[in-house]
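To assess whether the prediction recovers the assembly geometry, we first specified each molecular entity separately, as shown.
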Amino acid sequence: MSKEIIRQLKSLKHADTGPSEEWLKKNRELLLSQISNSAAPKHNVKFNFENAWQAMSIFLPHAVVYNIVRPAMVVVLIMVMGVGSWVATVSASYESLPGDWLYPAKRVAEKTQVAVADVVGNKNEVAKLHGEFALRRAIETRDIVSQNNPDKLQIASETVDALKEEMNTVNTKLEEIKTTLDSGSEAVKNINQNAQEITDVLKVVKVNLLISTDDAGASDLSSQVSEVKTMVKDTAVKAVEVMVEKHLQGDVSVSKDDVKQAISDQLDSAIKDAAESKQSMVEVNKAIDVVKTEVSAIALGEKNNAQPNTTQALSVKVEETSKQTQAAVDSSQQFNTETSKTVNEGQQFLSQDNLAQAMDKVKEANAVNAQVEKITDDALKAVQNILPVVAVATEGSVVVAVTSTPVITSSTLSTTSVIKVINVSTTTKVNVSTTPAIVPKSTTTIKQ
Amino acid sequence: MSRSKLSEKILLFKLQAKEDPEAFAKLYDIYARRIYSFVFFKVGNREEAEDITSEVFLKAWRYISEKKEIESFSGLLYKLSRNCIVDLYRKKSSHKEIFSVDDENEKEVGDIETWETGFEKKIGDKIEVQKIVVALQKLKQEYREVVTLRYVDELEISEIAEITGKGHISIRVTLHRGLKKLKEMLGKQ
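The predicted structure of the complete assembly is given in tokenized form:
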């Protein structure tokens, strides 16, 4: 019955109650002319939320848009702004260095990144992140050392500690990747690259430390840096080792060419390190020889004076050190030859696609280099002992900085040695160009 | 959501965001006949129905220009039509007081008889229709309006709620009672 009534009611609609087409058309035109007169002049409508809600209510019920979506949007916006400002703070903090007020934000962000990767269960990502953070610490150390902050040694030391901690974590993660069956070569490759970069950065740190500071703490920091540098080198070798192992196990996430490239890089860096050690010893030896000649000459000149003892004692010590550096030069030369041989063998294995044996050669070459470095460091320490001197040799130039009294700066330009001995407090200032000459004046200025 | 409803909402959005006269023209094409019929049912006079329909669309445009919140364009048109019809009856009743013209003007606001007389002729001898028209005529004004809006004009409950300013549940209840009453009447007839 109800349906019947509804049908009847609907039939009323189809009765001839509509307007005439003519009137409809006429009225439409009239209406349009009226509204175009009152229409607001067209202007570019910028985005406004009211339009957004209107647009949304095309698809959602009006009440839902205004009573649910709109309040929810406010909450979301508040959250986005909160998180957004956090992101902005963190990205601003990326440039910060230890000691800066934003630095803690940087570290917290890093910890969050690691925590998130950890929660997700991505071990490779965690390892990769630690590698990246270690590189950041190294760069931070480099930047701090080149600053003029009075506390820089303390801060740098803390940063180096943090770097050491990161490297320890990286090593643990490498071990984990090695023992698990998952493919992790990509992460290992990354760690290897980072480790190589860190080594380069730390080399710069060492040079900067010797050039820019005359603080006794610099020496401690330098040995701390050396220690970490060795550790980083070991990590790089270990990373390549894991890469080789994974590759041999059939992990194809990193191509064979990449693995070969990594081994080749290691061999190259081994030979480069060996050459550098040798070169630096040769330079130190040259510098010591020049100093020896000078000191002997002074000692000779002072023989008849009232207080000849100091210079003579120094002369003896220089003589001893000279012997030690000479020995270091000899052994570094010997080791250099050995490294070259090992590296050559390694490269041969590599060309035969014998990755495992090539890797053994990398390890061998690195072990030799570690020995050379120890000898070099010992020799430098000996130099420091006689002249409270810190020395470092870089390509073609030697910088010898004396910490307490005499300051010696030496640089070798092809065959010519230029040495400047500046005695700040008491006795001599030596200016040597092609042939050493002594200027017995007490002055605090430095002459070229 | 039906396609026509969706296109109506898109047109309405264009209208609200850009005051686009083209969109308004399209909406006119969709609703002009329906509004005319709705008004014609109530006033029973072509000229008055035409005047009111024009007025309704013009008022709707002003309403949009004033950036007032609109839930449904059809709802707005029916609401405006209802108000215009009420205005017309008010005018007529005051006119009656002054001039005290013929009997037809004594009829109640929205009284079905006004259109029924003209309408009946056109439908002719359809007894079925006559019956239902008579029943509607006897129905209470409150029920009659909701029943015609729902089944003759085929509006959604939400639209009727907006037009009459009542809640959805109230409309459903009124509709149910109206239909029941109508059924009773038709049963008796």
